[in-house]
Amino acid sequence: MSPSTRSPFFFHALRRAATRAGGVLTLGALLLAAAAPVQAQSTFNTTYRNGSSYKIYGKEPSATGKYPLYVHTTGTGEAYDSAWAKAALDAAVARGFVAATVEYDNATFGSCNTISGRAKGIFDATNANSAVAKLCARGKVDCSKGIATGGLSQGSIISVLSRNYEPRVRASMGQGTGSTYTAAYNLASCMADGKHTQPGDRIRIINGERDMFVGGTEAIARSQAELVTGLQCAGQQSCFRKNGSGWYIVKDREVADLNADHCFMGNLGAIGVQCSGILAVDPYYEYGSGEWGVKATMNWLKTFVTP
Predict the structure, then answer these.
(1) For the chain, how far is it from start to end, CA to CA, in angstroms?
(2) What digits encode the pLDDT tens for the residues 51-99?
């Protein structure tokens, strides 16, 4: 579903957010943010190959010039061009990136070997058929200015692993990120700090306090973020280095549906059911100024690339 500001689900979220106790933004402020003009941009579609052919959906500034690249990878079962992914692309383009969200074989989760193979198919700098090769060849992209990555859940694992295969990746963001996903998957061998090529001080992790996939409690969500980034702040809600890398745990009270689960950035479903309901974008995530929001994330990623 599109995150259109004309959608009734969008205004439903705003109404809930406006009446929420301790809200960060008023309804009026969010409406003004939603109505603010978006930097002129154009869309594009292309494909890449990793065994099979996969789709790429992208956006780029309409103005002439060469730009750094942002690559987004969605979670297990999430459409590659979901409303959540498009919100990330819009925020990236507004900050001077060419931005793309990449389809991959995400019908299932997997081991380090499985997910690493998917990451390589997207980011292999030596493969002319990889997604990054196709994107770096675009007329408005200059990958020597740097590549930034982001994603949700399995897509966040791919984001962190991206630099294993593409040295021009300068910083990576992950949402719903850890090394243990339920009892079935332990990815510490590739996701613990020092086990991936991306340095811990080039990673920003954002987890919801109700994220059942990485543990279900704030303490476990924190420990998972600490493991991936190598940055520890016992008992804290957030922990950042001077360069903005680190992690943040989203509280229920900070999101419009009062349910900071695995899909805190847009879930309008039932509390206790992970990532259920309407795939609208949470207004505090999309338009708010909090450190867990998409604007703050893209501002951080921008600091690592050349304009």
Answers:
(1) 32
(2) 999 999 999 999 999 999 999 999 999 999 999 999 999 999 999 999 9
Model pTM score: 0.89
87-113 mean pLDDT: 97
CB atoms inside a 10 Å sphere around CB 134: 19
Q: CB neighbours of 303 closer than 8 A, spacing ≥ 6?
A: 171, 243, 244
Instruction: Determine the distance from the C-alpha atom of residue 181 to the mean position of all C-alpha atoms in its chain, rounded to a whole number.
Output: 17
> Which pLDDT band holds residue 4 (cuts at 50, 70, 90)?
very low
pLDDT, tens digit, for every residue of 7-54? 434 444 444 544 444 444 454 555 455 544 456 899 999 999 999 999
Q: Exposure pattern of 144-183 as b/e (b: 16+ CB <10 Å)?
A: ebbbbbbbbbbbbbbbbbbbbbbebbbbbbbbbbbbbbee
HSE-up (13 A, CA, CB side) for residue 94: 18
Residue at 6: amino acid letter: R
CB 226 within 8 A of CB 214: no
Burial degree of 240 (CB within 10 A; 0-12, 13-18, 19+): middle
Question: Which value, to the nearest 10 degrees, does the dihedral of the CA atoms of residues 251, 254, 256, 262 take?
Answer: -30
Write the CA distances from 186 to 125, 268, 291, integer angstroms.
27, 29, 28
**Cβ count within 10 A of residue 235:** 7
How much of the chain is in helix, strand and coil states, percent to nearest 5?
A: 35, 20, 45
- Three-class SS state of 251: coil
| Contact status, residue 287 vs residue 34, Cβ threshold 8 Å | yes
- Residue 188 carries which side chain, given as an amino acid letter? A
Determine the Cα–Cα distance for residues 160 and 193; give it in Å rounded to an integer: 10
H-assigned helices in the chain:
8-18, 27-35, 83-94, 112-123, 131-136, 154-161, 188-191, 218-229, 283-287, 294-302
Dihedral over Cα of 183, 84, 171, 30: its sign: negative
